[in-house]
Amino acid sequence: MAAVDLNAEALGVPRKQLMESSGNAVARACRDLADPGASVAVVAGRGNNGGDALVAARFLKAYDVTVHLLGRPETISTDIARENWDALVAAEADRRTVTDSAGFDLGDPDLVVDAMLGTGVTGALREPEATAARAINDSSATVLAVDVPSGVDADTGDAAGLAVDADRVVTFHDDKPGLGDLDCEVVVSDIGIPEAAELFTGPGDLLALDRDAQSHKGDHGDVLVVGGGPYTGAPALAAQSALRAGADLARVACPEAVAREVQGYSENLIVRGFSGDRLALQHVPDLLDFAADRDAVVFGPGLGDADESLAAVREFLAAYGGTAVVDADALQVVPEVDTEATLICTPHQGELRKMGGETDADWETRRDLVREFAADLGHTLLVKGAYDVVSDGDAVRVNRTGNPGMTVGGTGDVLAGAAGALAAVLPPLDAAAVAAYGNGRAGDLAAEAFGGGLVATDLLERLPAALRGDEA
Ligand SMILES: NC(=O)C1=CN([C@@H]2O[C@H](COP(=O)(O)OP(=O)(O)OC[C@H]3O[C@@H](n4cnc5c(N)ncnc54)[C@H](O)[C@@H]3O)[C@@H](O)[C@H]2O)[C@H](O)CC1
Ligand SMILES: [K+]
């Protein structure tokens, strides 16, 4: 929900506007449950759940409304909730602030609006919320809960002890998984979050990358790039991109003939050569061993399309059970391989057709075609284009970052490496979506500096800022 909110904000629909819609929906539910003139007690907590009800109070002119704020106004935790409190103060609305549980008096209302806690609840209800919850449960009033009954975990439906016993819940945007088992009526209200906030990647998607302060070396991925042979820059770009996208370790397995050159690009890479000047079947057993201890493998950058190299990719994937990003020439073997591995395939439109997939000039048609083809393959697809389409055969995401300057060579290797690093820490669909978003943003930042003259290494430098969400 937090991710969708941020994406909505980036699309020009800020949280305060959503709160106005939520409050409006709460007021509608009140009108449904009580006749004009009825007494309504709005019990508001200090977060945005409370804020929703403070808005609702403004919409209930035909009712006898008393607002109980649990806590001093200075302790309201968000600006948008505080602004709505200030609006009630300015309007001299009937209101009380409850600074300790002894000071809470619900009165004898016809209807209670429970807006103490929503999705922000942590642990058992503290005071004065606990006292207020008991008073609400003891009263004979009809109880309308905002978003979720206070004290109930919206994801699981569990309560850590006491929770409000509601007659009806008005929840927002989408059903919450935890509400299904509650013994009360649940109404889902649309609050104007654009569908695009869920379809298109946005800054909210970056929330998935938040790191645990307690993390250790290796927690963020040990990534192996298998490639090189005819090209040496591609595997080096992919591996460096994995590091820039947050991986702790990036290794390259490449032919001995090019290993020195690959190492020469960066001292941050761990390079391991195998005999000869290109990948072949004889290398597969060692590669499988080496890959088994890694979190993700990126297959393809600079590998070339020699028959023996493609045969090796086929044999590797057939025996591999981990997570792999498959790019470039390696893509063509994917449709014919029966593998246990979790694959993220990163074709451009031409490579997609070579894999047997269809494409279309219209992005909405393409979205549907990519979803179907991903379902057929049983793998995640990231189909590159002006609009990148990502699908695991079920969900679809579309990425709009990036610019025409990125048609330069090497940007695909940067994307594949980033996808490898992210696949080490996120589910495949999210890894692909965030990689596409970050790579495109890095390209946009690079275009600011270099326009159509940007090169792939410019993206490497800007990938950390792009994945942090810095403004272009
Ligand atoms: N897009 C949306 O989903 C929208 C949701 N809205 C509403 O916002 C709430 C979530 O708001 P948030 O501020 O994140 O959290 P809460 O208001 O639920 O609670 C935070 C508040 O509560 C305190 N607290 C936490 N746990 C406890 C406890 N066990 N006992 C006492 N107090 C507790 C904490 O310290 C904070 O002060 C969502 O449910 C919707 O109702 C938006 O308005 C519209 C968009
Ligand atoms: K609530």
Model description:
By secondary structure, the chain is of the alpha/beta class. The chain has two domains: 198 residues, YjeF N-terminal domain (Rossmann fold), CATH 3.40.50.10260; 259 residues, 3-Layer(aba) Sandwich (UDP-N-acetylmuramoyl-L-alanine:D-glutamate ligase). It contains 15 helices and 16 strands. It has a nine-stranded mixed β-sheet, sandwiched between helices. Strand 2, helix 4 and strand 3 form a beta-alpha-beta unit. The longest helix is centred in the C-terminal third of the chain and has 23 residues. The mean pLDDT is 96. The structure holds ligand LP7C6HRI and potassium ion. The site of ligand LP7C6HRI has 31 residues, from helix 2 and helix 3.
Question: What order do the helices and strands come in, and which of them pair?
Answer:
Blueprint: H1 2-10, H2 15-33, E1 39-44, H3 48-59, E2 64-70, H4 79-90, E3 95-98, E4 111-115, H5 129-138, E5 142-146, E6 168-172, E7 185-189, H6 196-199, E8 222-226, H7 233-244, E9 249-255, H8 256-265, E10 270-274, H9 284-292, E11 296-299, H10 307-319, E12 323-326, E13 342-345, H11 349-354, H12 363-377, E14 380-383, E15 388-391, E16 396-399, H13 411-423, H14 428-450, H15 456-468
Parallel strand pairs: 1-2, 1-4, 2-3, 4-5, 5-6, 6-7, 8-9, 8-11, 9-10, 11-12, 12-13, 13-14
Antiparallel strand pairs: 14-15, 15-16
Helix pairs in contact: 2-3, 3-4, 7-13, 7-15, 9-10, 13-14, 14-15
The structure holds ligand LP7C6HRI and potassium ion.
Domain YjeF N-terminal: 1-199
Organism: Haloferax denitrificans ATCC 35960
GO biological process, one term: metabolite repair
